[in-house]
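Format notes (please read before filing issues)

Several people have asked whether sequences and structure tokens are stored in separate files. They are not. Every record keeps both together, in the order shown below: the sequence lines, then the token lines. Line labels are part of the format and must not be stripped during preprocessing.
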Amino acid sequence: MRRTLAALALLPAVVALAACGSSGSSSSSGGSSTSSQSSGATATSPVLGVASKANVGRILVDAQGRTLYHYTPDRNGKSMCTGACSIEWPPATVKGSAPLTAAGAKGTVATTTRADGTKQLSFDGMPLYRFSQDATKADAKGQGDEHIWFVIPAKGAKTASAPAPSTTTTTSRSGYSY
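Then the structure lines:
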């Protein structure tokens, strides 16, 4: 009798696990790494959204609510942030080939292929990044950093406060030049 009760108690967990494992979705559920976190993309879940953050207002965020930034030296939809830069400013990447959408923001969500072959999310042609010093979803510590890193306003427009990019090399507070 005890074995039967124990087996019946485990039955809901087994059924739930089996249902999760056979979802039939063709998209890849993205995992996380220490330097470049990925977002899973499915037809029903947006990879980008909008959130209000202190001192910056309503801005574009990833599916987990983390602040996204654009790098003003990027040109023609291609990322110029590589090497040491991409350690401090990890690109927002995605795996799979499901349609990409943004909830609450008007603009075009796409990807651009980085030199290492990863797919970096872009919004209205701007490659997207996270900031390594943003420890929580509430953070937007990278806004205005080095006068070349900016959050993306929720309107979907290019950041109005971003100055024209400089052609000189800029050194970050970490001592890396990019």
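For reference, the curators noted about this record: The longest strand covers residues 48-53. The chain has one domain: 27-151.
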